[in-house]
Specification:
five-stranded mixed β-sheet, alpha/beta, 37% helix, 5 strands, 3 helices, Transcription Regulator spoIIAA
């Protein structure tokens, strides 16, 4: 998986590309750490536009990020889900745990 990050105002975006699975753990964690460390960041947006697959370990990584962000008063938003990725997130009821858009 490839991750591109960008920051604008108070939002830090991680644009994911490819398969979001167990093999992405280290890269994903390293990518969001800057957002957690930044006092200016209020929202961490995960852009799923380029993701064509995610598994249960990806769901766990998202939950871990949410827990860490909540502890720091930051919000995690899941954006631009489609196809199988949207179905998995819907079945897992992530709409009750995360702000979801697009």
């Amino acid at each position: 998986m490839q991750i591109t990050t960008r920051s604008a105002d108070t939002t830090f975006t991680l644009a994911l590309q490819g398969r979001f699975d167990f093999h992405s753990h280290r890269e994903f964690r390293e990518s969001y750490q800057a957002a957690l460390d930044s006092g200016a960041t209020r929202e961490i947006e995960i852009d799923f536009r380029g993701v064509d697959y995610l598994d249960s370990s990806a769901l766990g990584m998202l939950l871990l990020l949410r827990e860490k962000a909540d502890a720091l008063g930051k919000q995690v938003t899941l954006a631009h889900m489609h196809g199988m990725v949207k179905q998995v997130l819907d079945v897992a009821n992530f709409g009750k745990l995360f702000n979801m858009k697009g």
